[in-house]
Amino acid sequence: MKPETPGKEGSRCVLLHYHEIGLKGKNRPLLISRLARRAELAVETLGAGPVRKLPGRLILELSGGASWPQVREALSRVFGLANFSLALRLPLDLEAAAEAALAQLAPLSVSTFRVRTRKAFDTVPISSREWDAAIGARVQARRRLPVSLTYPGTTVHIEALPAEALLYVEKVPGPGGLPVGMSGRVAALLSGGIDSPVAAWRMLKRGCEVVFVHFHGAPYLSRASAEKARDLAALLDAWQQGSRLYLVPFGNLQKEIVLSTPPDWRVVLYRRFMVRIAERIARLEGARALVTGESLGQVASQTLTNLAAIEEAAELPILRPLIGMDKEEIVAQAQAIGTFETSIEPDQDCCTLFVPKHPAIRSQPAHLRKLEENLAVEEMVARALAETEVLDIRRDGTVETMGFEKAHPGREVKGVG
Ligand code: ATP
Ligand code: MG
User: Fold this and answer.
1) Ligand 1: does its nearest atom lie under 6 Å from the Cβ of 183?
2) 3-class state of residue 118 by DSSP
3) pLDDT tens profile 27-61
4) Do 387 and 249 lie in a common domain?
5) Residues 170-209: tens digit of each pLDDT
6) Which of 153, 173, 193 is the last residue of a domain?
7) CA-216 nearest atom, ligand 1
């Protein structure tokens, strides 16, 4: 982020607005800096930037050939933005502002309008009221448009800076939420299904950086689910610019469970192993919580009793942002964020491997622990991790794949508790 310097007059820039609410206190400067950085990252490959700070808002430079439709699309995925506007840069001059206002309104069908001038600093040598009235009067005279101060159909916004004025008419809604990274990091269990991408997205929206962990049924099932997880992580990466996905082969571990436990308990046992493995990854990644796409009562493994039994296997908190949502609501959200189509592609879900049609809905941790006494839990976890692949998905769309050892050289995979 650069200190404030005036841009070239006649050029365009984007004004970025954030919600004041939730931004109070000591965190405020940090939040704003992070939001600015996030916006810069989102548009960097489009040739836009840098971002400068002004009181209460940010300015993104749009020099060079940056295309507004592309920048607009990218900014619509920057959490923390309340709204943003393409603005014209003008000299700090009333006549120039009035001409620009008329030009901006010309292609629009306007019912009523008003002019709203704001001074970025008290020291800016103009009067906002005078500008509003004078520019309003000019537009009214030339376009014969009625003014409405309380319910205007269109508002001409003017931001008066010390050496220039920025003028815009349209406000594009931002995605809201908090800048990614602001709330720390979480590890999200990403299946190939509909729910978990939505759960991960909701955590991104609340300012979490998300590391993705997927379990696939190799060598007993195809890697189709892993391919889907990769596609889903790449889609979700549009909100965080740079993501890591862990692909954990789970088939052998499942086979060991199957050999020593009755069918009814397998799904919950699989889940307990998933959270154990995800927790090891979370600790290596500095993530403070696990995230799943569970929703209360949606399937047998998601009863309160089973959720508690799964949770008991991990020490980190398990966050379930979809817990109170209906399937229809989750599907609508998946469609809105663009993950639905990928999620419904056919795959082979490892959780369906060797499980009965009607698994137990009331598992007791004590009973599960007893069953796990027959299993070499720590070794099974360590073996799965040793065979795990780590994919780094970059902002430019390239992906680097490496083994677990390369991603965490010399790091012992520590157990918990
Ligand atoms: P989803 O649509 O997210 O798969 P679901 O309704 O199918 O959810 P389950 O299959 O019971 O429900 O999975 C519950 C949660 O457990 C998922 O949302 C996900 O967070 C995690 N999970 C399940 N299977 C996997 C997997 N193969 N890899 C990673 N996480 C998984
Ligand atoms: Mg599933």
Assistant:
1) no
2) strand
3) 888 899 999 999 999 999 898 989 999 888 899 99
4) yes
5) 999 999 999 999 999 999 999 999 999 999 999 999 999 9
6) 173
7) 27
